[in-house]
Amino acid sequence: MRILGKQGCFWGIACLVIGLFAPPASAAKHVILMISDGQGMGTVMATDFYNGNRAVYESFEGKYAMTTYSALGTYEPELGWRLFGSHLLNPTDSAAAATAMAIGVKTYPGMLGKSPLFMDMKNMVETASTQGLATGVVTSVEVSHATPAGMVAHNISRNNYEQIAAQMIYDSDLDVIMGAGHPMFDNNGNPRLQEREYRYVGGEEVFEDLTDSDGARAKDGRYWSFMDERADFEALAQGTLSAGKVFGLARAATTLQQGREGNPQVVNESNRNPSVPSLSDMTLGAIQALSDDPDGFFLMVEGGAVDWANHSNEKGRMIEEQSAFNAAVSEVVAWVEENSNWEETLLIVTADHECGYLWGTDERAFVPVGDNGAGNLPAMVFHADTHSNVPVPCYVKGTGAGPFLDGLVDGTDPFFAELFSGFDPGFSGAFIDNTDLFLLMSRWLEGEDEGTNGAGHWFKGDLHAHSLHSDGNAPVAAVLNSAEHKELDFFVLTEHDTDMFDSEDPGPVMPTHWDDPDYTSEETVLLYGVEWTTGKGHANAWATAPFDYTPLWHANTGLDAVAAVYGAHDGDALFSINHPSAIFCCPWEYDVDNAVDTIEIWNSMYRIPNLNGWSSHPFWDAELLKGRRMTGVGGSDTHKLAEYASDPFAKIEAALFGHGNPTTWVYAEEKTGDAILRSLKNGHVSLSYAPDAERLDLVADRDGDGYFETLMGDNLIQTPGRELSFQIDIRNPAPPGWFAVPRVKELTPENLVKLAAGEVDLPALLGLLAGKDTYLVGVLKNGIPHRAWIVSGGATRVTFDDVPASRGRTYYRAELMGTPDLLLFQRLLYGRVKAVTNPIYVNFPAR
Fold first, then answer.
1. Residue 130 has pLDDT above 90, yes or no
2. Could you say which residues bind Zn(2+) 1 here (predicted)?
3. How far from the centroid of its chain's Cα atoms is residue 53's Cα?
4. Which among 269, 486, 693, 787 is least buried, having the fewest CB atoms inside 10 angstroms?
């Protein structure tokens, strides 16, 4: 069966995200993660001995032992090697191990893409996609099995195959999916006439959708090209077939070769399933398809049936499967050296865990596998049919990858090094953790983050406003005059699209205010924006130049927020969710797509009062906790100007809400639209109540040299247990009284707990904040109040040290509370929030 589906883009949505969203020029283009599922050092040795040669990856300079334990375990070398069999206690599984590599966070066995708190976490496929790269997964077992699923899916159980497959096909960022799990064939390539198993491909209806004349429509608007004939896989690998978005399903029920008939205890290449491609052909075919993306690709390749053979203690099939995996690695290395280079390509070869507890003798002793000569089965004995916590080998190749991992080494396992020194002295015993691979891959894509502080200037602006072109009351000239009067450096009119276009209009459509002759300024950088307005939520799109709004308008009429995000990015525009937790109007009711750029966390119109418990901050924190570095921005959402207000309600609204309330401050290299949007995307943003009000700066010293080079939006890669120093400065504070004495007093842990729980003595706290020069500076760590200080008498700086979480991700952000300028109105409308920062991130994914 061969179905070449549609490859056009739905509603004009771009197939590739380019321009503003491309990875930095210094970042490499390709990341290839190759996982031999269930491989330990015994597997590597046995295969080498039988074949009489070494695998190509064994020549890599970067070699590490790697721990694989789950969120329920730990690794202590002295304890593990003290008693034979100790490594079998509480091992991980493929789901938790793949998740650890894909999200950088330990989780429970059986779970996919979720933290131990059952929260969906941004994974490697999503990370690569938001960097503009194509993505793919290839496996020798079912396409929705634990390891490929762990790279892309979010599910409470690895056994929910139908849900996982459907998510991969319809809701993921994947461009290539290849593997087994064909419902129409058995493991010998024979047609199945009865008892067809559709669950690995999402169920019978999904399979029919994949294989019909159109193909299944994916999240990005393109259609999957289905192939299952061996000749097509081979043609794709050779570059003679172009198939766009590829779903390649080998004609095998569960595995390419391991599950076929024959004696599994001997190596026998003569009775192979002739209907399926090799893992090498699938890997090269995936690379050919993904290479069409000029920005590069992320590819995970799994030799999944190594684990199946080890579970069944099949010596012959284990060597066959590992040999097939080794051959695929050799093809990848050859492709890199012919078509790319090691400056732009990172290759990681490793395992998710050891399986079978494979040693060289039937005695319960740590004796390595023995060499009986090429073509002969090595001296090897399986001591278990389950996984173990024995560290697995990890090989890396790519310029700078080794030094990066050297900085993440957790410790030394001298027992591991001594055991295998005779086979490969390149292993020093230094061990990393499987979560470190995510940090390496993410940093490889994003490029080195050396810290932004000191490389730019602060510019202030308003990102949300209206005029007569939608439901505002003032002409464009008057609106811009107001913005310039506030001395805003940048400004954007975001008219409601529903006020400009007809729902029956097929397009093309162009926002009317962009052509308004008065939409010009010599003082203020003007962006081009629209408010995407639906009954399930609003969002802004901002660009530096007019763009085709038609895809977003079609997405509006179709209530398709994902298509709207893609449409914005197609026009090199940012996509920002507006007032997501609005009380009076229009909260965000769609799912939050991973590609959303920013969230409006401070909006004047739709949150009264602006206290954390009532505002959009919990919504924002929920996305940050998933590993999504979505920038928090503000927007006044001003509709009315006083001089054009004709009725009492309009006059009241005009008096209460004005341009620059709140103000979004952007730290950018220069005062240009491109620089401002780039900094908005990168999170170098702080918010204040007004253009001339207090602002907070949050910076960090990453290396202890006394220079705070790390700014809001920056991402630090830190080893566990390393302390960071932070500094918070209040800019433009209220002047202190004549006899004021600068004071900084930290709240006690008891009072901080009460503050977080809402049980603090509020009258007493408000009494402390009664003075204009008195503030409460608070720091939130992963969305939870962490430290707080009363700052008064002209004091403007707070410093503190902290150790981020030993595993996983940590972020810090700060808030400033004080006395409202106009007690009656502002206390009612805005509470006491004066300023909010974006986070500094530690061990987060690339944007």
1. yes
2. 353
3. 39
4. 269
Residue 613 pLDDT level (bands cut at 50, 70, 90):
very low
Nearest of 800, 802, 831, 799 to residue 818 by alpha carbon: 831
3-state helix, strand, coil in the chain (%, to 5): 30, 25, 50
Q: Count Cα neighbours of 702 within 13 Å in the Cβ-side half-sphere.
A: 19
Predicted confidence at residue 773, as pLDDT, reads 78
Residue 128 · residue 333 · CB < 8 Å: no
DSSP state of 289: H
pLDDT score of 495 more than 70: yes
Instruction: Please tell me whether 692 is known to bind a ligand.
Output: no
Q: Is 37 annotated as a binding residue?
A: yes
Measured in degrees and rounded to the nearest 5, phi and psi for residue 358 equal -85, 120
Position 641, amino acid: L
* Terminal Cα distance for the chain, rounded: 39
| Assigned token pair, 118 | 């059952």
Cα 576-581-587 angle, rounded to 5 deg: 75
Is residue 466 part of an annotated ligand binding site? Answer: no
Residue corresponding to tokens 């909010």: 836
496 is known to lie in a ligand binding site:
no
Q: Provide mean pLDDT across the span 149-173.
A: 98
More confident residue, 128 or 605: 128
Rg of the chain in Å (alpha carbons): 29
Q: Which of 36, 94, 688, 725 is catalytic?
A: 94
Instruction: State the Cα–Cα distance between residues 453 and 709, nearest whole angstrom.
Output: 5
Q: Per the structure block, which two tokens stand in for 397? A: 């190749």
Bridge-partner residues for 840, per DSSP? 812
Q: Quickly state the pLDDT bin for 354 (edges 50, 70, 90).
A: very high
DSSP string, 469-517: TTT-SS-HHHHHHHHHHTT-SEEEEEEEGGGTS-TT--S----GGGG-T
Q: Which residues pair with 729 in a beta bridge?
A: 697, 797
Token pair for 220: 């990005």
Is the pLDDT assigned to residue 596 strictly greater than 80? yes
Pairing between β-strand 797-802 and β-strand 724-731 as defined by DSSP bridges? antiparallel
User: Which candidate, 500, 504, 572, 488, places its Cα nearest to that of 532?
Assistant: 500
Given a contact cutoff of 8 angstroms between Cβ atoms, the answer to whether 174 and 152 are in contact is yes
pLDDT of the residue at 24? 40
Question: Which strand (E) or helix (H) includes residue 468?
Answer: none
Classified as helix, coil or strand, 542 is strand
Question: The dihedral of CA 127, 129, 133, 137: what is its sign?
Answer: positive
pLDDT, average across residues 750-755 = 67
Q: Give residue-wise pLDDT tens across range 416-432.
A: 999 999 999 999 999 99
Residue 353 assigned to a binding site? yes
Q: Domain ranges in the chain?
A: 2-446, 694-700+726-847
Of 283, 406, 297, 430, nearest to 28 (Cα)?
A: 297
Q: Cα dist. 341→23, 59, 120, 701, 814 in Å?
A: 17, 17, 34, 34, 43
CA dist 741 and 795 (Å) reads: 8
- Judging by DSSP bridges, how do beta strands 345-350 and 30-36 pair with one another? parallel
Integer Cα distance of 535 and 413 in angstroms = 58
Mean per-residue pLDDT for 21-50? 82
> CA neighbours within 13 Å on the CB side: how many for 443?
26
* Section 229-254 average pLDDT: 95
Averaged pLDDT for residues 551-563? 95
For residue 222, the model assigns a pLDDT of 94
197 among annotated binding-site residues: no
> Helices (DSSP H) in 626-735: which residue ranges?
648-656, 673-682
CB 317 within 8 A of CB 304: no
| Mean pLDDT (the chain, rounded) | 90
Ramachandran angles phi, psi of 373, nearest 5°: 95, 155
CATH code: domain 2-446 is 3.40.720.10
Of 845, 630, 840, the residue nearest 104 (C-alpha): 845
Active site residue 242: no
- The reply to whether 307 sits in an annotated binding site is yes
| Selection from 469, 461, 622, 446 nearest residue 531 by Cα | 469
Checking if the pLDDT of 2 tops 50, the result is: no
